[in-house]
Amino acid sequence: MTQQAETKSQADIALIGLAVMGQNLILNMNDHGYTVVVFNRTTSKVDDFIANEAKGTNIIGAHSIEEMVAKLKRPRKIMMLVKAGAPVDELIDQIIPHLEKGDIIIDGGNSFFEDTARRVKYCESKGFLYVGTGVSGGEEGARHGPSIMPGGSPTAWPFVKDIFQAISAKVDGDTPCCEWVGENGAGHYVKMIHNGIEYGDMQLICEAYNIMKNGLEMDADEMHQVFAEWNKGELDSYLIEITRDILAKKDDDGLPLVDKILDTAGQKGTGKWTVLSSQELGIPITLIAEAVYSRCVSALKDERMKASKKLKGPRALIAGLTGKSGVNSQKNLEKKKKFVQDIHDALYASKIISYAQGYMLMRAAAKEYDWKLNYGGIALMWRGGCIIRSRFLGKIKEAFDGSKSFSKKSAKHELDNLLLDDYFHGEIKRCQKGWRNIVATAAKKGIPVPAFSTALAFYDQYRSAVLPANLLQAQRDYFGAHTYERIDKPRGEFFHTDWTGHGGDTSSSTYNA
Ligand code: 2AM
C-alpha cells in the first residue's frame, strides 16, 4: 500500500447522521481509540461538529459518501443513525455503489424489525453484510455506554464485536451490555420489546404516583422520599431513580415542576409495534397494551376535561390513611406506611408480570422467525446502559441461566415462563396480598390502575387450570357452528351441537372445507 493510500484508508468505522445520538456515539467510539469518519446529509453539520464537539479528537469529517468510504479500512463498516423509515433505504442505495463485497452496513436507528429483515436480505443479495442494531440509553447512554442489541448477517458480528462491546455499557466490572442477538431483524425486535417494557415500567410508576397523590394526598416531596426508599430495594432502577429526582425538582417559583406539566403523553410508536406484534403472534402482552392505551387516553385531554364534569364516581381520598385527619394520627401514619408498602408490592408484582409477558412474546417471535434467542443474554444486555436498566434484570438473567431455575434437574432446562421460576413466583407470593389490596382499593375509590389490574387479571388467568372459555366455545358453536372439543374426549376431536333444534348438523369447518 502506498503512503497516500494508507493515510486515506485510516478510519475504523464511518458514521452517518449527526443528530444527538450519532454525535454521542461518535465521541464514545473516539474515546475508545477508534478512528471515526463522519458524514451528514446537511454537510454544514459535519463542519460544525468537527470545529466544536469533535475539536481535538481523531474524528474525521467527510463531505460526501464517496469521500467517507475512501477513508475506511476494509472490510468497511458504515453505521447509519438517521431517521427510521425511507431515509434508511435511500441511504443504503446511496452507499452501495461505493462498496466492495464483504463491506458492512449498520443501522443503529429505531427501525422496524421487518424493515431490517428486508434490508439484510437485500444487502446480502448484493454481496454485502448488514447489521440492524438496537441502541438504547438516550443521549447519556450513547455518550458513555449504551445497551447495544445487534442482529442481521451473522458473519458481520466478528467484525463489529470489538467496537460495539468497547463502547457499550458494562456491568459487574467489565461485562459488556452487548451480545449478538440473532439473524435478520432480531436485534431491532429485541430493542422493540425493550421499548415496550419501558412503556410498561413507566406506566406502573405513574399508577403508584397517582394513588399516592390522589388517594393519600401526598405531595411531591413526600413522594420523592418514597421513591428514594424504593430505589434502595428490589425496585432499584434507572426509571425509579429519575422519578425520585423529578419529584424533587422545583420550578422557578419554588413549587414542584412535575405539578405544572400538562398530563398528555406523547409516543413514537415502538410501544404500539410491540402490541401489534403480540396480536399477530397471539401472545397476551396486556400490560404493555394498557400502557400504550393509557398514553392514548391521556392525549384526550379536552374530552377528559368535559367528561370530568359529568361522569361521577367515588371520592379518591382514602379515608383514615392520609395521616392528616388529626384523630389517631399516629395510627393513621402506621396504616399509611403499610399502604405505601402495598403500592410498592403492587408495582413490583405487576413488573414481574410485564417482564414475563415480554419474554413470552420474544419466545413466540423466536419460534416464528427462527431465531435462537439467548434470554439470559438479553437480560444482561438490558442490565446496564438502557432505560429499563435495573437490579431486577440481574435476577431475570439468573432465572434464564438456570442457576435458580424452576427445574434444577438440568442447567440446560429452558424456563418456560418467568413466573414459574422459584425466585419470581416466591416474590409474587410475597407481594400478592398488597397487590390485591391496591387493585381493590383503587377500584373502590375510582383511581385508575389499568396496568396494576391487568397484571393481576393476567396472573389469575394464567394460574387457572379452567377458564370460562368452555362457555365461549358453546356461544361460538351456537351462532356460528364453530365446533368445540370436549373434556371427556381426546384433543383434536371436534363436536357440533344443534343448540336450538332449528339448526343443521353442518359445522362451519365443513363449510370451509
Ligand atoms: P440532516 O441533518 O441533513 O437533516 C436525524 O434526523 C438525522 O437523520 C439527521 O442527521 C438527518 O440529516 C438525517 N436524515 C434524515 N433524513 C435523511 C435522509 N433522507 N438521508 C440522509 N440523512 C437523513
Q: Descriptors for this entry?
A:
513 residues, alpha/beta, eight-stranded mixed beta sheet, 54% helix, globular, binds adenosine-2'-monophosphate
Describe this structure as you would to a colleague.
The protein is of the alpha/beta class and 513 residues long. Helix content is 54%, strand content 7%. It is built from 21 helices and 10 strands. A hairpin with a 3-residue loop joins strand 8 and strand 9. The longest helix is centred in the last third of the chain and has 41 residues. The N terminus is likely disordered. The structure holds adenosine-2'-monophosphate. The site of adenosine-2'-monophosphate has 12 residues, from helix 5.
Question: What is the compact description of this entry?
Answer:
This protein is of the alpha/beta class and about 525 residues long.
Q: What is the number of helical segments per DSSP (H or I, 4+ residues)? A: 21
Radius of gyration: 27 Å
Proportion of residues in helical segments: 40-55%
**Ligand identities:** adenosine-2'-monophosphate
pLDDT averaged residue by residue: 93
Biggest sheet overview? 8 strands, mixed
User: What proportion of the residues form beta strands (DSSP E)?
Assistant: 5-15%
The helix/strand class is alpha/beta
Distance between the termini: 69 Å
Strand order of the largest sheet: 3-2-1-4-5-6-7-10
Q: List unreliable stretches of 5+ residues.
A: 1-6, 403-411
Which term fits the overall shape?
globular
The total of beta strands comes to: 10
